[in-house]
Structure of M17 family metallopeptidase:
Amino acid sequence: MSLPTGFVSPDAAAQPRALHLLDRDALPAWCERQGAATARWLQAQGWDASPGSVLLLPGADGALAGAALGIGDRLDPFTYAHAPMALPAGDWQLADTLDADAHAALLLGWGLGSYRFDRYKQAPREPARLVVAEPDAERFDILAACRRVRDLVNTPTEHMGPEELEAATREIAQAHGAQFESIKGDALLERNFPAIHAVGRASHRAPRLLQLQWGDAAAPHLALVGKGVCFDTGGLDVKPADGMRNMKKDMGGAAHALALAGLVMARKLPVRLTLLIPAVENALGPDAYRPGEVIATRKGISVEIDNTDAEGRVVLGDALAYAGEQDPDLLIDFATLTGAARIALGPDLPALYSNDDALADAWLEAGLQQHDPLWRMPLWRPYLRYLTSRIADMANAGSRMAGSITAALYLERFVPAGRTWAHVDVFAWNDNDRPGRPAGGEAQGLRAAWAMLKQRYG
């Protein structure tokens, strides 16, 4: 198999240098084994194997002979993520043996730390490469899924509108022999997806519902839904400039669902998979949907538009209703849905909602094990009062109170009763640079989702 960026096979490596992985507890014994010269060098540098640190080791001739990497929790991928950019470019080979779980974490962390979005700007340098004798196919598939989310979210809207998101979905479908369909423009009305059409009709780029289907018809049915708002102006309830600045990322839910679908297919999880992405641009224009309008939905629920900037839940409602009609064993949606979730949990913790305790517990546990955490939030149904409309079955927004919860409750109205469902309100973005987490698009809760699905169906 071809190796991802940041890795090299032994036969292609060029004079790899030795790399030692050390935590503070292991440092004294390692230093004693290396001899007096290394001990003096370490003392001169004042290096204590702090997590995130690097110590370069000179050879007898003064050339670079190797390095020591300061790490913390060996099962946390991000404890290794500083290595590709902290080490000098070139090839590096582990001087130590890691157990299988730690080695898997190393591969993932190294791969995430090697990532740079370079479509428009060349990366300042190449990452250091890790010599990999036995590629871990599953780990590299997971890495590819995380990088796919980053690439999709980082791409500006002129190159990642509804049409381009369709092309990306079609490409993945073709790669895995999946069926693909795009329901576009006025065909949405003919096929009874009026809410998706209402939100996207003002854009010069036609709204559409993307559908991918894969797997054995006799297998348990997994349905994934992702919010694909390729740019969100807020509509006629227009966002201020700072709120609109990064709205290319409002298709982050679609990026997560698409990447997870690709991972399910690449790993051949024994499920029947349906992926649904309502892909729209929430634009300003003479045909924009307006505050106070009452729109129809696929489920037959009439919705009064209280705020055109609460558009994600509107398009997801039609997609969730359609997914529910197919009687899935499990229905999951991902969406960059509310700023309220970020106020409550910050940028790193996706908000998890579910109508099934066992599912939520399994996902949260997987998040802890994979160092990919989520935080469960309540479906507090008394707050449905904040979505009351005097002229329609419900409003799409209302009070500023409990904004993430009311958004989840809105979505739940479109999920069939008794259907196991989870909703992830995800930021899909790093707001600053950290090792392995460059500023920009980010996959959050995705690795945990895969671990949970693998346990459930694998």
